[in-house]
UniProtKB/TrEMBL annotation:
Catalytic activity: glyoxylate + acetyl-CoA + H2O = (S)-malate + CoA + H(+)
Active site positions, chain numbering: 147, 427
Pfam families, alphabetized: MS_C, MS_N, MS_TIM-barrel
EC id: 2.3.3.9
Single Gene Ontology BP annotation: glyoxylate cycle
Sorted UniProt keywords: Acyltransferase, Glyoxylate bypass, Transferase, Tricarboxylic acid cycle
Superkingdom classification of source: Bacteria
InterPro entries reported for this sequence: Malate_synth_C_sf (IPR044856), Malate_synth_sf (IPR011076), Malate_synthA (IPR006252), Malate_synthase_CS (IPR019830), Malate_synthase_TIM (IPR001465), MS_C (IPR048355), MS_N (IPR048356), MS_N_TIM-barrel_dom (IPR046363)
PROSITE patterns in the cross-refs: MALATE_SYNTHASE
Family indicated by similarity: Belongs to the malate synthase family.
Protein name, as recorded: Malate synthase
Amino acid sequence: MTEILTPEAREFVADLHRHFAARRDELLALRALRRAEAARTGRLDFLPETVDVREGAWTVPAAPADLTDRRVEITGPTERKMTINAMNSGAKVWLADLEDANTPHWANVIGGQVNLYEAVRRTITFDSPEGKHYELGPGPYPTIVVRPRGWHLDERHLTWGDGTPGVGALVDFGLYFFHNAQELIERGSGPYFYLPKMESHLEARLWNDVFNYAQDHLGIPRGTIRATVLIETIPAAFEMDEILHELRDHASGLNAGRWDYLFSVIKYFRVTLPDRAAVTMTAPFMRAYTELLVATCHRRGAFAMGGMAAFIPSRRDPEVNAVAIGKVREDKEREARDGFDGSWVAHPDLVPVCKEIFDAALGESPNQLSRQRPDVAVTADDLLDVAATPGSVTDAGVRGNVEVALRYLEAWLRGNGAVGIHHLMEDAATAEISRSQIWQWIHRGVRTEEGTPITSELVRRLEDEVLAEVREQLGDGYPGSRFDDARVLFERVALADDFADFLTVPAYELID
């Protein structure tokens, strides 16, 4: 910890807070106002005041050499073993996740920074309690792109002035940038970031100002930082051009953050969607979103990055693998056909699958920036056409949401933010969908396809059933788990009268 929280690093992060924390607070207040207006009207639209930006002929700068080929990106938390496995995965990029795949225990926040520090310098090793040794292989290694926390999350372990908690995003960005920017530059790379959960171009403007200030402060040329923005909220989908434009010389692309995007649609408009597994990327509103993303990015010279393949291959069940990898292939082939420049996987065993598909699509080119999409004409109605989503709500879907939420939240509270459940890598985004669908189905009085009314009583009965199975599985280990806390938390964010904006905010109160 002392190597990360040096007096100089703390002062740098404090300086960022003095300059930018108040603006963060103002922008969060604007989110609430905009959401209330959307709830009143049932609409969002492209901004009339930024039409010149959308119709302008501007582009972002060419990417640095180690960000020109992004055909396969592996995502995962900055836990020590996972860091080494990601660096050895053969992926082109590692999304080093300090956000949705990471529980912000203070040990994780600082431990992740230590692991990044050593990964940048190629010195990281790990010896497991079972006696297995992990170290970096011969390479080549993926380019590291760090995802800090979203603007909405605080960091109570660092306080400023009158005891106000730090802004999680500024803590994560500031510590990584301070310790690693110059080292990365000297190694022929640079400080690269994925920016999550933004809801407007004004939030991108704040990030751009943070970048300029940080670079000036450390004597690093402006434009050295490069940022890829996750378009994972419905209002951001209406401001893709504007977000890229605000980031100016720092922009390198957009990513289709599909699970958070679904959550945002439910949260913004309180819509009723079918079972999570039934809402695929071919649903009309999801198709409009990804088509617009590719067209916008390539028009601006920015990369369009595809969504997550969350399947975890099983080394014991080849039949499960065959079916799931077939679905992964279908998903990645669709993205490659649509013009995406690469895509995400959650497990090293999926890197070859994704790479093979994009190798075939790219040929000798490192990306598909030359593939313009003049055929794409997406309207506001297209982005909002949720009613056309095929599928239904089923008994199994309700139970699955309850189980995923409980199992994920229990692991999150123990410090694990990326959890394998039934061969899928679940993170905070998928848990958000699970609990938000439960909340919405109850408040809309939805019945399942089988005729079961979805009520709080049903959910509590399903909780009983799931936890009975867990007790049987864990045996004497159950009392040491946090399933009882997970149940209380789940009911707080799924069964309460009011809808909590993010489950991670009340969850944060329950961890060290």
